[in-house]
Amino acid sequence: MKFLVLTSLVYFILAGCQSEKIEVSKEKKNDRTEMWEILISKSVFSSPDSKKCDVVNDRVSALVDSLVGDFKMQVTEYNKAFDTIPDGEPMRPLEMFVEDSVFMANNNYISTRLKVYISLGGANGETKYYAINCDLNHERLLSKGEILNLKQECEINGLLKKEFRNPDHCFTGEPTVATCAALNFTVKNLCFTYEKYVLGAGACEDVEVNVDRSMLSNMLLIK
Question: What integer pLDDT is reported at residue 93 of this predicted model?
């Protein structure tokens, strides 16, 4: 009898641990026509015992759908413009690539970042970054100001300047919280992503600045 009780107790403990695990799977889509090629690879989050990941999945899906819709509209307008140009030939297909990076996915937080590349017929395409951070215990998305105490912006900017790596002196600007395109976090650090042209010439490309959590002290609002 004692063995059965102990076995049952162990089972429920293990089941409880497993129920908290966040599963991450990949969803891929390919939409190719004469006018465009759209490749999407994004993570889908799930938890066995609840729907608390829905807020992240819904936000990512809505964002991707909106960006794809805008891209298709721009491609359509781009092609229409050539109808008025004698012998004009538009570039085809124009491209849109979406991929993501998962920084954290546990029973407390999910932090993920979308990287979206779009080519609309120019010499160079454009890459944008979007951060999606979620407090799973409260099932809500987090803004920059809910991750960091922005009243201490000057102190945070000082840490960003200190941790910024620019060995080739390509970048001419300094990273700040305000100019950060995407803010993500792991158990060890915060990752600030800056898009091309923000801190220097296009040849410098985009850049990440990582700041250790221990350096942020009371500036950090998440656990």
Answer: 94
Report the pLDDT value the prediction gives residue 20, as an integer from 0 to 100. 64
Helix/strand/coil for 85: coil
User: Is the CB of residue 29 less than 8 Å from the CB of residue 42?
Assistant: no
Q: Which residue has the tokens 């990512």?
A: 60
Tell me how far apart the alpha carbons of residues 186 and 189 are, in angstroms, rounded to a whole number.
Answer: 5
Contacts of 119 (CB under 8 A, 6+ apart): 94, 95, 96, 125, 126
> What gap in Å lies between CA 128 and CA 120, rounded to an integer?
14
Query: Of 222, 149, 158, 153, which is closest to residue 185 (Cα–Cα)?
Result: 222
Q: Are 126 and 116 in contact (CB under 8 A)?
A: no
Compute the distance between CA of residue 112 and CA of residue 106 in angstroms, rounded to an integer. Answer: 12
What is the tens place of the pLDDT at every residue in 29-48? Answer: 999 999 999 999 999 999 98
CB 212 within 8 A of CB 199: no
Q: How far apart are CA 115 and CA 203, in angstroms?
A: 18
